[in-house]
Recover the amino acids of this structure.
């Protein structure tokens, strides 16, 4: 599938694009979890991360890395990141155009960050020994 007219991420305004490479682009999440939260998406409509082809997967990692560096360079309060992709409704996906979240983290931005992305199921965020 190329572009989908009903898909909001197929209609991202060129003005909102922060950076891109041959197959992927980056823009700000409209409802950021933390300041600087970025989404990385394929230019072509793909339903989720597992639909990316080899070139797109490589480009996704390259762009993630570039955006991480750019966030670091521009905001010295950033001290970590969460990256993640929700794949499927049961995993929490709400926009069905593949996107990878790049979420900057800062010391003290929540009460206890331990477990990070394990928090997709809040009560399982911490594992037994932590
Ligand atoms: P999901 O739950 O599918 O992993 O994440 C969808 C993400 O898209 C959410 O973090 C949400 O804040 C973001 N989002 C939803 N609508 C828009 C929009 O119109 N523009 C932008 N830039 N982000 C959006
Ligand atoms: Zn789309």
């Amino acid at each position: 599938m190329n572009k989908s007219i009903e898909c909001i991420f197929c209609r991202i305004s060129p003005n909102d694009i922060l950076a891109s490479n041959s197959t992927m682009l980056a823009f700000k999440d409209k409802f950021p979890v933390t300041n600087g939260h970025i989404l990385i998406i394929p230019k072509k409509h793909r339903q989720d991360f597992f639909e990316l082809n080899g070139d797109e997967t490589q480009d996704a990692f390259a762009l993630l890395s570039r955006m991480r560096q750019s966030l670091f360079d521009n905001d010295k309060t950033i001290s970590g990141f969460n990256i993640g992709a929700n794949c499927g409704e049961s995993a929490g996906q709400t926009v069905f155009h593949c996107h990878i979240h790049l979420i900057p983290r800062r010391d003290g931005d929540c009460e206890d960050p331990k477990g990070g992305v394990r928090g997709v199921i809040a009560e399982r965020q911490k594992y037994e020994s932590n």
